[in-house]
Amino acid sequence: MLRLPVSCLLLALAASIASSAVIVENGMPLMWSQAAAQVTDLPVQNDIVVANPWNFLHRMSFYRLIITATNPFMGSMGNSPTDSPLWGLPLQAGWMLTSGRFADPTGTTTCGLQTGDTMCISPQSWYGCVNHFTSVLPFLSAAKQGFFGEGVQVQMEAPEGTEDYCTTYADCTARHTDIMAKWDAFFQGLKASTSSPLPDNEKKDAILGLYWDAHMASLHASAACNAKQSYYSAPEVSFATSWINSAEYVSAANFQSTLERSVLFLTPLPGRLLQEGDSPPNIADMTQEENHTLNVFSWMKNMNSILGGSLVGMWRSSMCSVTTREKGREMLEQLLLDPRFPTTTFLSIITNMATSC
Fold it and tell me: Which of 196, 217, 218 minimizes the C-alpha distance to 207?
């Protein structure tokens, strides 16, 4: 088990956050110790790794295998084995599981429910569908780029009753050419970074840029999942849209989603599905931190709509250099983690930064 060095600042912030969504156990993502430590720990049939992406433990195995295989190329991120930006992915999946967002929203099966298979990820779940693009696709790309050994072949089990999801590298490339190309570019860029003459801060920024380019391509393509939003309440759909929209800001700042930072950002997410009548910041059975996060997400989405989509554009324009992206990351942490940080300050700073680029 990895021992996690945590700065005093992160400890102070973590201590101030009431536990809502359960996303770690013993300091690591959920079921990390039970996830596959090497690719051959997954089922193998006729020399082909055949995984079931509709089982939570298999998806966590994808993340553990990718993080383990790429860590030797992450030296520019820092000295800790938890400095990789990939740590946000398994923690996010853990939140989706424990908050009930991977469960069957149609109510026709017990997939993901306490009364059924708790490890089941429903193909009808909007969150399970979105997460497919940020788990299966990067895993298949990493395998193709040789991170699990030369010639390792991987295939995914297809969910019963639907052909919505790709199952092999060739299949995913045919259906989602741009996404797979960007994940390939990220993994290839990691390998190339070891011989790059750039200083570490620029090398890190370049790697984070490739990572977020691939990540956002996956999220944009997940619009194919939107029909599944009809199974959820209006407040949950509004939150889901805001949550996807928030990634625009995080990605533009080349946010380094280390394990510690990801815990801080994901812990205040709502620990259950939102219901009709839920209205932040006054949801009685949610913590102050959950209410604050929901309120900030809603404000960012609404302000972007009021400005005709220009808030995201202004933010992206202001993230024009390594230095401004560093400032942007700090400001996002303040906005999302400090209830005292006024949204008006956020807006004025963006305006000033954008005009200085």
Answer: 196
C-alpha–C-alpha distance, residues 357 and 353, integer Å: 7
Whether this prediction's pTM lies above 0.85 is answered by yes
| Per-residue pLDDT tens digits for 94-132 | 999 999 999 999 999 999 999 899 999 999 999 999 999
* Region for residue 300 given its phi and psi (left: phi exceeds 0; alpha: psi -120 to 50; beta: otherwise): alpha
